[in-house]
Amino acid sequence: MPDFDLDAALAGPVQTEADRIADNQPGFDIDAALNVNPPQWNPSCITDSRCRSRRTFFYPGAGLDFQPLFRLTHLFDRFVFCDLQISEDRFRWAIEGIHNIDADRQCHWPADGLELLELRRLRPASIPLDRENRSLLGRIEMSADEHYRYWRLHDRWQHGPKWGMAATLSRRIGSSHRRITLFYLGAEATVTYLKLFSIRRTAPGAICIKPYFADFGLKDWQSLLGRAVRSSDAKPDIIFGAGGDIDHPSTWPWNVLWQNYGRGWDVDARVANSLPPLFPQVLEGRRRIHLVSTALSPENLGNAQAVITKSHHADAGWPAGLEVITLGQILNTERGGRATEDERSIQPLDKALQRLDDICRNRGIERVAAVPFGFEDEGQVLNEWRVVDGWPKEIVFHCPTHGDFHSLGGSFNADP
Prior knowledge:
alpha/beta; single chain; 17 strands; 14 helices
């Protein structure tokens, strides 16, 4: 079987002859390369399905965290993971068994939500090997101490030879299937980014920065990965997980909240500049979906007969006579007569809506106010739900972020 050509799959803009000459000149001006314009975000890159060049998700230090494949397929259809500490055998074992994941074990993934269609090795030329690492790192400014620490940690983390694989998968969303591709490279993050994106003067649509490589300080915009991102005029639209904390705040210039991915993943996604205002919207059908930007509270329930909320908010002073349904009840996470921590458990949205239908039908509940539930990429399930009869007749989703609106089928251009 021929190797998969990652270069062709990720091909960015064609480099001009002037670019090639400039790149080969001695004395590369790293200061000029770093002082590029700040990232700018265009909502059309998210809402326009034709914007294919931005539909790549880059995840350094990914380990075997496959959460993005279950939550982000409405935004991305190409996922590039890399991690020096994962061997080819370990990855193959995990990806070949991904369809056997049991949702009832509270492992945060849906049963039969992903199916592996094809698994192929990447061409060796696509993988950043040790012999070219120094050349790639020459595109960013590094001190002697950084070089020493880089190679010390590189040698400590590397398990076996460098490798790369391409997995073609199908993600089931209701009655539809989305075809996605996962590229996994057993290589270091900075050189992988430089090889796949920076030297092409392009960027992925998003980067996920989880603090696995604390010694490299990835929450710092001046980190090695940050400098790799800065070395290209093109910038990602969204940064996942770079929010930092009180003691170590992030300095990446993506600081406008797009969406919070709690419930088992605990990642914030942020964009670089301001977002358009959100207005209440109604998605019509045999059943209706309302989207509002206010947080769910006892003061803004409207004419709802029931509320769907987190288990620890079940006693939040809701009005007398209001039915309180916890996420644990509709997400099938109750154990021994009590709900588990529903922030750590998610079920496919179609199954959750079926359980909600049973509850509302039995109790005669037609109007429900709710926090978002299910996986974030399952808006298509709601589209199928609202065009058929059933219970409840109306759900008002309280969406605190633009990402929630987009996930549930809302538009950013709707007028009040």
